[in-house]
Amino acid sequence: MKTETITAAWRGHPDCRTCGVRHLALFSDLNESDFRTFHLPIEDLAFPKGASLFSQGEPGRAVFTVRAGVVKMVHQRADGAQRIVRLHRTGAAVGLEATLGASYQHDAVALQPVLACKIPVETLNRLAMETPRLHRQLMRQWHETVIQADAWLTALAVGTARQRVAQLFLYLLDTAPGPVCHFFRRDEVAAILGITTETASRTVAELKREDVIFHVSARWFRCDRDRLQKIVEN
Amino acid sequence: MKTETITAAWRGHPDCRTCGVRHLALFSDLNESDFRTFHLPIEDLAFPKGASLFSQGEPGRAVFTVRAGVVKMVHQRADGAQRIVRLHRTGAAVGLEATLGASYQHDAVALQPVLACKIPVETLNRLAMETPRLHRQLMRQWHETVIQADAWLTALAVGTARQRVAQLFLYLLDTAPGPVCHFFRRDEVAAILGITTETASRTVAELKREDVIFHVSARWFRCDRDRLQKIVEN
DNA sequence: CGTGTACTTGAATTACATCAAATGATGTGG
DNA sequence: CCACATCATTTGATGTAATTCAAGTACACG
């Protein structure tokens, strides 16, 4: 039994000014003079699949900006069960509670290889003192988080297992360029939708048999959006 | 058939400096000089039970601070069904998305008679330009909202109907001083827990028969915390 | 090429939804 | 203040969907 912790690779200190996803992220509104004010260490990190950015209960010392990949936010329950409460994708800020001096509320785990910038709270708070432009972006990220939380509840936590699975596919397709999307392990599907692994498996298998989804490769499916839409509509 | 809209009573322009719940609310960190900068209209309003502070989709022009009572946030689904996604109590800020120029994401409805201050976004944004102290409180409110959203999902959207109802009682007892708490209409219980009205009714009736809860008066119950706790633990 | 993990499937059981109807509260106008 | 209307709650009977327990199969990875 190997309980080796998966670690992130350090990729240096990034130049935020030339960041490809800056327009999506926390620093999008900052200008030249804003950037000159911080030489505090921002780290560019690469997390392999399964690595954790931080863990539930840990004191929050940094906010992470996702530059590539998907991060799942996992809530650990007292009884050992776990529920995935959100996904954060490119441009999202993860661990915002750190700016308020709070502990992290969830485990943040890389679902795919993730590139993320780690911004210490001191950097963020100092910067926030000096520029209101950052505040607006922070609020925008909070807003995004709330919208996601609500969508999760209203779209993925109601209806039959079949409808929920269809909704999950549509949710994932939403940010995909084509009809192909990454999908989850069946136990992750269960943790997202609040159903059992068996029901998740049965439902996905059923959709495969009906040719609503097509298994392209490990964890990737090509999907029929229209038919998925019809399923969620009952 | 009367479709008369329930309206709020206007109670004047409040003096925030002497507000009884200021320590809980958005303006808790503001000082004398901050207060001098705004003479913009903040309204003190009284909403009767069932009145709506704002509606889903409406352009967000104000943030509301709840000074008394409880506000339910209702998500209207395309199929006409509705789901209660959050409750906001004394000290909470409702409609924060307005500060970002967004439309309201839910209906905000007074569950009990509600006292609330209506703060126009212009006031808030102007004030936010001038004082970073307000920012911290705005972020705190966002954080609260996210914590609630997550709690709703992890506590109230999993398990059997019996467990969910028990969790709902515990959730309501959490902010109650004694063992007595306000409870919901059965159709509201259904909208919160994602079950049917009949199942909600059956479950509540069952708990009454088992003396876990005791019907004190219309919509108020005395509860046995320990036994509720045992129910959620299975 | 084997081994463990992920996925699938089956059968029995339970929980919930659904349809339908009766009873209990609450409030309003005569 | 009563009678009636309306809303809220409870309960029953029945069907369906999901869980549970238990095997089995496919698949990726070293």
- Count of alpha and pi helical runs of chain A: 7
Number of strands of chain A: 12
Largest interchain contact: A-B, 35 and 35 residues
| Multimerization state | homodimer
Q: Into which percentage range does the β-strand content of chain A fall?
A: 15-25%
CATH homologous superfamily of the largest domain in chain A, by name? Answer: Jelly Rolls
Low-confidence blocks of residues of chain A? none
Protein model, in words:
The structure is a homodimer of 234-residue chains. The first copy, chain A, has 234 residues and is an alpha+beta fold. Chain A has two domains: 3-154, Jelly Rolls (Sandwich), CATH 2.60.120; 158-233, Arc Repressor Mutant, subunit A, CATH 1.10.10.10. In chain A, 35% of the residues lie in helices and 24% in strands. Chain A contains seven helices and twelve strands. In chain A, the strands form three sheets. The first copy, chain A, has a five-stranded antiparallel β-sheet. In chain A, strand 5 (71-76) and strand 6 form a beta hairpin. In chain A, helix 2 (121-130) crosses helix 3 and helix 4 crosses helix 7 (225-232). Chain A starts with 8 loop residues before the first strand and ends with a helix. In chain A, 38% of the residues are buried. Chain A binds chain B through residues 75, 77, 79, 83, 85, 96-97, 99-100, 102, 105-106, 128-129, 132, 135-136, 138-140, 142-143, 145-147, 149-150, 152-154, 157-158, 194, 233-234, and chain B through 75, 77, 79, 83, 85, 96-97, 99-100, 102, 105-106, 128-129, 132, 135-136, 138-140, 142-143, 145-147, 149-150, 152-154, 157-158, 194, 233-234. Chain A binds a DNA duplex (30 and 30 nucleotides) through residues 160-162, 185-187, 195-199, 201-202, 204-205, 218.
